[in-house]
Amino acid sequence: MVDLMLPDWTIAYVHLCILLVFVIGMLCFFVRRSYIRQIVGLKLMLQSVTLGLVITGWQYQDHYLAQSMVITALIIEAIVIGLALTLIIQIAKHPHNETITSQGNRISAQEENV
């Protein structure tokens, strides 16, 4: 295996870029009102954490620990994104302006107020 040595300023710059991507993802997650854009923000945050684990493992020459943590993070990320997308689909299918009565008939919100 070839060990590539980089100057300390380059590694610090990479960590700064990872932090910047995490902050962009956090802003996208908390500021956006669209659910899909919030999922993209969550994905950015999780990917920046994964990249941070890879770079830190490479920096300290501990590849096995970094690989196991990245694999675990990717599995957790896939589960979280899958659950979030499932919830978004269920929210999109749910009628917001209708209520269901006990007989199963749908009554619109305008008819209910009359």
At CATH's second level, what is the architecture?
Orthogonal Bundle
CATH C-level class is Mainly Alpha
How would a textbook summarize the main sheet?
Answer: 2 strands, antiparallel
Give me the Rg, rounded: 22 Å
> Low-confidence parts, pLDDT < 50 over ≥5 residues?
none
Overall pLDDT, averaged?
A: 83
Biggest sheet: strand arrangement: 1-2
Proportion of residues in extended strands: 5-15%
CATH fold title: Helix Hairpins
Question: Treating each run of at least 4 consecutive H or I residues as one helix, how many helices?
Answer: 4
Distance between the termini: 77 Å
- Gross morphology is elongated
Structural class: mainly alpha
Number of domains: 1
List keywords for this structure.
mainly alpha, Helix Hairpins, elongated, 114 residues, 4 helices, 75% helix, two-stranded antiparallel sheet
Secondary structure layout plus pairing:
Elements: H1 8-31, H2 35-59, H3 63-93, E1 98-100, E2 106-108, H4 109-113
Antiparallel strand pairs: 1-2
Helix pairs in contact: 1-2, 2-3
